[in-house]
Amino acid sequence: MTSSTVSLRERDSPIYKENVQNVFIQTKSHFGRVDIVVNNAGIFDENDVKKCTSVNLNSVICGTMLGVEHMRKNKEGGEGGVVVNMASTAGLQPYPLIPVYTATKHGIVGYTRCWGANPDFPYQQVRVNCLCPHLTNTSLLQLTPEQKAAGVVRHVRLWEAWYPMAMKTALRCVCVCVCAIGTEKCFGVL
Length: 190
Fold this sequence. Notes:
Layout: H1 14-31, E1 36-39, H2 49-71, E2 81-86, H3 99-116, H4 121-124, E3 126-131, H5 145-149, H6 152-162, H7 168-180, E4 188-189
Parallel strand pairs: 1-2, 2-3, 3-4
Helix pairs in contact: 1-2, 2-3
Enzyme class: oxidoreductase
Pfam family, one: adh_short
Keywords: Oxidoreductase
């Protein structure tokens, strides 16, 4: 099993899509096909709406579109596959302290649901699913001094008390299970 990643540093430039496209081309060249795409991107930056939207939503849309393009059965070399978009529980309910982040994750959920209603599925054979984990112990929870001073810590502690923190390994297991499901009609938001 191998994976490839693309840096989000140039996500606002035309070069970003080209770099993502190159990852797909290299993967197909090496392995013969692409089977699974996991779009996992997220930042908290309520002060930079463009950056937050670009990373959290636009990069997921780009990865999904290119993934479907390279995996769809009605294209030479495509054998179908699975796209897993990582959203958040913030995509299912409001988090008033982080409205921009919440909006981007709602966008991922809505975008994924649109793919679930895709009338071209019988020809493409690419399932698009979305996982909505709660807080996980990632670098997103490493607060800056400014965030700490702004009282974000208190709110993170409240969230931790309300919901048990998901383990990264548990999330990986769910992702693997979603990808392994062989049914043609497995779409949705988990």
